[in-house]
Every structure is written in C-alpha cells, then in structure tokens.
Amino acid sequence: MILEIRKIGDPVLKQKAQKVDKVDSKIKRLVEDMIETMKFANGVGLAAPQVGEPLRVIVVDYENKPIAFINPEILEAEGETIDLEGCLSVPGIELKIKRYERIVFKAQDLNGKVKKYRAKGLLARVIQHEIDHLDGVLIVDRGITEEVGNNI
Ligand code: NI
After folding, report:
1. What is the pLDDT of residues 25-80, one digit of tens each?
2. What's domain 11-142's architecture?
3. 25 alpha carbon to ligand 1 midpoint, in Å?
4. How many A from CA of 74 to the centre of ligand 1?
5. DSSP β-bridge partners for residue 79
6. Residues within 5 Å of ion ligand 1, judged at the Cβ atom
7. Within a 10 A sphere around the Cβ of 114, how many other Cβ atoms?
8. How far, in Å, from the CA of 127 to the mean position of ligand 1?
9. Rounded to whole angstroms, how far apart are CA atoms 59 and 11?
10. Confidence (pTM)
C-alpha cells in the first residue's frame, strides 16, 4: 500500500523514533508499504517517521534492490564528504550536507537478526540521512547555507 509521505512541519518528523522491540508481522507490513512508497516516489531511501510511524525502521534502495534496516546504529564513521541532498519530506529543495564518507553500522534484518554492514559514498550518505530522520533531524537542520573561505 502506498502511504502518505509527511512533509516538513508535521510534528512526527521532529520526534525521536522508538526502537523496534520485535520484528513482527506489523513491522514486516510497514517495511513492505515503505518500499512500495519509496519506489512510487522515486526515492532512494525512506524512514518510518516519514510515513507517520515513529519507529526505528528505514529502507534504502541499493542498486535497485530495496533493503530494510531495523534499529540501525552507526558504530564507526570516517572521512568527510559534502554533496547536495534532497528529501521527500522537504520537497523542492536540495542542500549541501556534510556526511561521513564511510560508515560501519549494525541493524536487524526482517528476521530480527543483527547484522553488521559497511557502506561508503552514496549509500553511506543515504543511510546517514535516513538515520537522521529517526532522530528528528531534517536536511534543513544540517544544510550548509554559506561557504566561507577555503574551509570547505
Ligand atoms: Ni529524507
């Protein structure tokens, strides 16, 4: 089912999302709907608060294959990269955002199993963006609006 994507100004986007205790059928259904919604909106990632569910669930499109991460948590991060980012909840704008270049993170899969992942580049960027959503952080909270001297 395609869900409504909440837009900036909706309080659910500013909330800290709750940890998922158990990956049950309700969560699996939510993931299915989030993947359908992400594809419909041509997004590369989506976090549960964006569809009105304040739960720590994200989906990302990895080389045209959707993957769900439950309770994702960054364990290690290094490097720095600045690039333009958009967000389905903040339509019509793109902002320069500084992210880590490489991350190691853990998350549960749809069987509830904890796995450890490595990501770099665009995928690492998308995952950091989606985890931000779980903490109520939007691109407008992180955007670099001014470039000063040679510091960037
Ligand atoms: Ni977003």
Report:
1. 999 999 999 999 999 999 999 999 999 999 999 999 998 899 999 999 999 999 99
2. Alpha-Beta Complex (3.90)
3. 25
4. 17
5. none
6. 87
7. 11
8. 10
9. 21
10. 0.93
pLDDT digits (tens, 9 = 90+) for 68-118: 999 999 999 999 999 999 999 999 999 999 999 999 999 999 999 999 999
Annotate the chain with three-state secondary structure.
CCCCCCCCCCHHHHCCCECCCCCCHHHHHHHHHHHHHHHHCCCCEEEHHHHCCCECEEEEEECCEEEEEEEEEEEEEECCEEEEEEECCEEEEEEEEEECCEEEEEEECCCCCEEEEEEEHHHHHHHHHHHHHHCCCCHHHHCECCCCCCCC
Has 78 been annotated as catalytic? no
